[in-house]
Amino acid sequence: MKIVLVHRHGPGQFVHLACHLANAGWQVSFLCEAMNVQLPGIRTLRQPVTPPPPATPFAQYHQDVGLKAARTLESLVREEGAPDIVYGHIGWGSMMFARDVLPQTPLIGYCEHYYHASGRDVGFDPDDDVTLAKRTQLRLRNAAQLSTLDQLDAAISPTRWQKSAFPVAYHHKIGVCHEGVDTYRCRPNPNACLTLPNGKTLGPDNQVVTYVARDLEPYRGFPTFMRAAAKLAERCPDAEFVIAGGDGVSYGQPRSDSRTWRDAMMTETGINPKRIHFLGQIPHDQLIKLYQISSAHIYLTYPFVLSWSVLEAMSCRAPVIASNTGPCQDVIRDQQNGLMTDFWDSEALADKMHFCLTNQSRLDPMREQARATITANFDLKQCLEKQTNLLERLAANKPKARQVV
Question: Which domains does the chain have, with CATH numbers?
Answer without folding.
Answer: 2-180+379-402 (3.40.50.2000), 194-377 (3.40.50.2000)
